[in-house]
């Protein structure tokens, strides 16, 4: 898989102009959703190369990350005459970059694309690393492909228009990157004032967070080994997300990941000795910033079934990424059903369900 160019922009128009010059194309398309069409696209109107760009707009939020939406993007590309030499710009959050990237990867067996993430979650996670896809059959990201963008342009000024829930959702992935990297980064993330945001300092933290992911993806682009470190919190988190969807009370991805981190730090503690004090500090931050996802023991079997469908599993066992310490990663760890139910008991007890 080719290496992505990830740019932390000082001037978005200039960065986009350079990125477009590196991608010769016959037609240019811009994928937006209902929010980014209104809030973010105007920031690109002065880029001369976009004068004749064709906009494709889709619905916002994860409920539109579906096969039907994907087909509508394919249809728009087809009707507007896209070829294998066309270029797609994905302007939006993780749903737009995931779905748009998959549309680009599959239309006429692949056309080039550029990601311009507009949410914190997309900047530090979804738009970087080459994973694309859609939800299917009630499961998160069940259909997809590894297909990196030619460029990822990160403009943190977009975050000023982000609401508090979407901000803190993205911050969960940053917290995860802190846990899998080093103690200093973890400490600064726990200390950051998430209510009175210092945007200049946030830009520095975003840069460090993206670097953590880039370094891991470069070592293992197709997730055969160390890239599994990025799955911390996601086995339990995706199960929470799927249960929430099934119960028609959808939650933002980052919230589910944060709650998943609570579960998987507990597993880390009992299975590989992650320090109890660091587990408690992290859980306290999550309780204060993310609230809790409520369920009772009657949902344990359903949550376990969702975990069994996780793409990271290699056999009949459920696979987790765990930590011995901050930055000391244990991939390919398993847990039996009784231990997973014990983990869910711990979550409900410490989170006050």
Radius of gyration: 20 Å
Taking strands numbered 1, 2, ... along the chain, how are they ordered across the largest sheet? 1-8-5-4-2-3
CATH arch. level architecture of the largest domain: Up-down Bundle
How many domains? The number is 2
- Write down the CATH topology of the largest domain: Dehydroquinate synthase-like, alpha domain
Report the uncertain regions.
none
| Helix share, percent | 40-55%
Quick one: CATH superfamily of the largest domain? Dehydroquinate synthase-like - alpha domain
- What series of H and E elements makes up the topology? EHEHEHEHEHEEEHHHHHHHEEH
Task: Calculate the terminal CA-CA distance, rounded to whole Å.
Answer: 43 Å
* Main sheet specs: 6 strands, parallel
What percent strand?
15-25%
Descriptive account of the structure:
- The chain is 48% helix and 17% strand.
- It is an alpha/beta fold and 353 residues long.
- The protein has 2 domains: 5-161, Rossmann fold (3-Layer(aba) Sandwich); 168-196 and 221-351, Dehydroquinate synthase-like, alpha domain (Up-down Bundle).
- Strands 1-8-5-4-2-3 form a 6-stranded parallel β-sheet, sandwiched between helices.
- The termini are far apart.
- The mean pLDDT is 95.
- Belongs to the sugar phosphate cyclases superfamily. Dehydroquinate synthase family.
What is this structure's SSE topology?
Blueprint: E1 5-8, H1 12-21, E2 28-33, H2 34-39, E3 54-58, H3 67-79, E4 87-92, H4 94-106, E5 112-117, H5 120-126, E6 131-136, E7 139-146, E8 151-154, H6 164-181, H7 183-191, H8 199-219, H9 234-246, H10 253-272, H11 276-290, H12 300-308, E9 318-325, E10 328-335, H13 337-351
Parallel strand pairs: 1-8, 2-3, 2-4, 4-5, 5-8
Antiparallel strand pairs: 6-7, 9-10
EC number: 4.2.3.4
Function: Catalyzes the conversion of 3-deoxy-D-arabino-heptulosonate 7-phosphate (DAHP) to dehydroquinate (DHQ).
Catalytic activity: 7-phospho-2-dehydro-3-deoxy-D-arabino-heptonate = 3-dehydroquinate + phosphate
